[in-house]
Specification:
- Helix content is about 90%, strand content about 0%.
- It is an all-alpha fold and about 90 residues long.
- It has one domain.
- α1 runs antiparallel to α2.
- The protein is elongated, with a radius of gyration of 19 Å.
- About 0% of the residues are buried.
Amino acid sequence: MGQDFAVQVMYQGIITILMISLPIVGVGLLVGFMISLFQAVTQIQEQTLTFVPKVISVLLMLAFTSPWIFSVMVDFTTTLWSMIPNMVR
């Protein structure tokens, strides 16, 4: 297994992690921004007002995207398992 092959496997892993986490983190960021904007406009400074909607939105997004996340992870794992003979050489 050469250095280029190891870098390629690590690159694919990082891309997979980013692709999986981006929708969930993006929704959390968007909801947090909207709640912060609402708090700034209304001058409400309640800490739980930001926490509860972000947790609910992230959990809902995780529930909606979990089949897709599972299929991406299975594809990545299958690809890694199929690369094992190339790693041994």
